[in-house]
């Protein structure tokens, strides 16, 4: 009898543990998890042409494949594309398409044996790489397609782990280096003030500064070309239903506080941590645009190339990675944001069709603009990089 009771107790414990695991599963474990447990078939050019809807005149094809967990992108001065592969600890160079077939002419491993490399930026002859707990750099010659000297971690001890493991890096128009660090949790009060924040450094890693706070998970950020203003996308929190709270686009200012974990969306108090936080919420900065809940905006880039159609020059492209915590999937596309003279921001679909009726063939992560106006999209679901061109 006691054996039966013990068995029933153990089964009950395992059942509860399973429920709690799936309810609070850290996003780092599901970022690359396929929805089809038997594996997926990577899309080819024909499937992309059949599925992906683009604005008139744009066309998409597979630029490179066999890039497991492909994440952030950086285009070099001579038109090659760098891509980070956190799971294998590598940064890979995809050679530009000189053959004229729309495909990368080859792949070169630039840096390896890194700690979950994610964000990439080329600045002042250096390739900057944001690892899970550090910021590193190495000399890089885009013409020779090679690095030189030793890879050096110029900032160490960044808070690592937690729900949001990825670190992004970009050099600003001020010549300084910006690094984003996501929160360790869904919603909590952090012990380390560098979490849920954007940090700023000198190019040698000195002069550490917390630039902005209250940003739950700002993976992508970029400076608007005509104004020099810094914008970043942020992922809203989970476990408040299918359609709340919105994900965000924020105008990020030095010293600004953007609400998390006390407020969501347009300064709406959080049901868990917003009570008695009136002063903090009132002093927070509301987003300038809201995306649908759980769409998970990650990479973003302002378009600058004059070869693009006029209505897309200086538009902002945002990769919506897609929901993992919603009863019906949402996101799985690239959208364009168009800034109007009256201050409004219009959101339009740019590359949609990666998810149709719960059938997923891709999850966009990052977007980058090529030197001739082509647009690259990374996909960590298929391990591919796509190329979009306008003819």
Secondary structure topology:
Blueprint: H1 2-23, H2 27-30, H3 45-51, E1 58-64, E2 73-75, E3 81-85, E4 90-94, E5 107-111, E6 120-123, E7 126-130, E8 134-141, E9 146-156, E10 167-171, E11 177-181, E12 197-201, E13 209-213, E14 221-223, E15 230-234, E16 247-251, E17 263-264, E18 268-269, H4 278-282, E19 289-291, E20 297-302, E21 316-320, E22 333-339, E23 345-351, E24 355-356, E25 359-360, E26 364-369, E27 375-379, E28 384-390
Antiparallel strand pairs: 1-28, 2-3, 3-4, 4-5, 6-7, 7-8, 8-9, 10-11, 11-12, 12-13, 14-15, 15-16, 16-19, 17-18, 20-21, 21-22, 22-23, 24-25, 26-27, 27-28
Which descriptors would you attach to this protein?
391 residues; mainly beta; four-stranded antiparallel sheet; 4 helices; disordered N terminus
Task: Walk me through what this model shows.
The chain is mostly beta strands and 391 residues long. 10% of the residues lie in helices and 36% in strands. It has helices at residues 2-23, 27-30, 45-51, 278-282; strands spanning 58-64, 73-75, 81-85, 90-94, 107-111, 120-123, 126-130, 134-141, 146-156, 167-171, 177-181, 197-201, 209-213, 221-223, 230-234, 247-251, 263-264, 268-269, 289-291, 297-302, 316-320, 333-339, 345-351, 355-356, 359-360, 364-369, 375-379, 384-390. It has a 4-stranded antiparallel sheet. A hairpin with a 2-residue loop joins strand 6 and strand 7 (126-130). The longest helix has 22 residues, at 2-23. The model is unreliable at 1-39 (pLDDT under 50).
């Amino acid at each position: 009898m006691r054996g039966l009771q013990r068995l029933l107790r153990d089964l009950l414990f395992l059942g509860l543990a399973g429920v709690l695991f799936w309810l609070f599963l850290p996003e780092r474990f599901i970022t690359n998890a396929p929805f089809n447990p038997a594996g997926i078939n990577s899309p080819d050019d024909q499937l992309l042409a059949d599925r992906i809807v683009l604005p008139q005149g744009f066309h998409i094809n597979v630029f490179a494949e066999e890039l497991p967990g492909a994440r952030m992108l950086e285009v070099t001065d001579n038109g090659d594309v760098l891509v980070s592969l956190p799971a294998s600890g590598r940064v890979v160079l995809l050679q530009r398409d000189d053959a004229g077939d729309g495909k990368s002419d080859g792949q070169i491993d630039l840096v390896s044996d890194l700690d979950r490399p994610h964000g990439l930026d080329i600045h002042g002859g250096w390739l900057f790489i944001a690892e899970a707990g550090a910021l590193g750099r190495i000399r890089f010659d885009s013409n020779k397609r090679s690095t030189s000297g030793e890879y050096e971690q110029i900032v160490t001890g960044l808070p690592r782990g937690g729900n949001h493991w990825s670190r992004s890096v970009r050099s600003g128009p001020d010549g300084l280096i910006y690094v984003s660090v996501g929160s360790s949790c869904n919603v909590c009060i952090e012990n380390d003030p560098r979490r849920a924040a954007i940090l700023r450094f000198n190019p040698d890693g000195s002069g550490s500064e917390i630039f902005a706070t209250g940003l739950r998970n700002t993976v992508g950020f970029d400076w608007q070309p005509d104004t020099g203003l810094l914008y970043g996308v942020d992922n809203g929190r989970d476990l408040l239903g299918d359609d709340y709270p919105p994900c965000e686009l924020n105008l990020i200012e030095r010293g600004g506080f953007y609400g998390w974990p006390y407020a969501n969306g347009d300064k709406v108090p959080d049901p868990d941590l917003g009570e008695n936080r009136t002063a903090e919420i009132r002093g927070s900065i509301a987003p300038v645009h809201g995306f649908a809940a759980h769409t998970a905006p990650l990479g973003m880039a302002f378009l600058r190339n004059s070869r693009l159609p006029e209505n897309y020059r200086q538009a902002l492209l945002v990769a919506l990675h897609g929901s993992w915590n919603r009863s019906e999937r949402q996101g799985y596309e690239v959208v364009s944001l168009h800034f109007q003279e009256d201050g409004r921001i219009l959101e339009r679909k740019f590359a949609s069709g990666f998810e149709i009726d719960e059938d997923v063939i891709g999850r966009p992560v990052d977007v980058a603009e090529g030197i001739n106006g082509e647009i690259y999209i990374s996909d960590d679901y298929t391990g591919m990089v796509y190329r979009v061109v306008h003819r």
